[in-house]
Amino acid sequence: MRIYECADAAAMSRRAANIISAQVIIKPNCVLGLATGSTPIGTYQQLVERCKNGDLSFAEVTTVNLDEYLGLAPTHEQSYRYFMNHNLFDHVDIKMENTHVLNGMAADPDAECAAYNELIHSLGGIDLQLLGMGHNGHIAFNEPGDNFGLETHVVSLSERTIDANKRFFASRDEVPRKALSMGIKNIMSARKILVVVSGEEKAEAVYKSVTGPVTNEVPASVLQLHPDVTLVGDSAALSKLKEAGVQVCK
User: Fold this and answer.
1) What is the rounded distance in angstroms from the CA atom of residue 41 to the CA atom of residue 43?
2) Is residue 164 very low, low, confident or very high in pLDDT (cuts 50, 70, 90)?
3) Which residues of 7-109 form beta strands (DSSP E)?
4) How high is the pLDDT of residue 158?
5) Do 46 and 39 touch, CB atoms closer than 8 A?
6) 3-state DSSP assignment of residue 35
7) Active-site residue, selected from the candidate residues 65, 87, 136, 142
8) Catalytic residue, candidates 143, 146, 151, 234
9) What is the pLDDT of residues 8-45, one digit of tens each?
10) Is 67 a catalytic residue?
């Protein structure tokens, strides 16, 4: 695992955008796995700017998103399809039919998950998977205790995840209790993985994920077993790693 320290969230976003841009330039028809949440927004802004400046094109790119809330329509402002359209897809030259987000309104959620797995396989897998990391070490909506062998599946959100996401809704009661999510098996099958982390509140999760035992109680710890992972974080998020003497690159 390569770990890069950036001075702040803005520098982290630029570094992450550089890595994604390089992937698109090297393989214009690549498959990108994308993430939502507050952390990657700056990275998406960087990518939008580069596309508008003519330095980058998504014309041949295909995307698959990690997850979606169960019960939210794509037009709902807190759905992840809405998030992706608003923060990236509507502002770059990607073909909308090449963007894939799980359908939170699927009549049969299990069938939707199975179809999503088939989609990923039919695309030849994911070239670069972008990840954030939750306060409890979750990646996508794979919560502590989840089976590492699962592919896309229906998940019940932990109380801590519900609390972390309530700031996006009018009240805690409005936060969905379930979601559709790629499983750890999907994520670990990606050829490359890029993790972005920001803020002191993520420092403990980062520390456990990088230095602790590989355990499903800290889902991100499984990334230690992947052959090509890059973690990009700001100084605050990497603070506990540095205190422990873990080598990081500037």
Assistant:
1) 5
2) confident
3) 31-34, 62-65, 67-69, 99-100
4) 86
5) no
6) coil
7) 136
8) 143
9) 999 999 999 999 999 999 999 999 999 999 999 999 99
10) yes
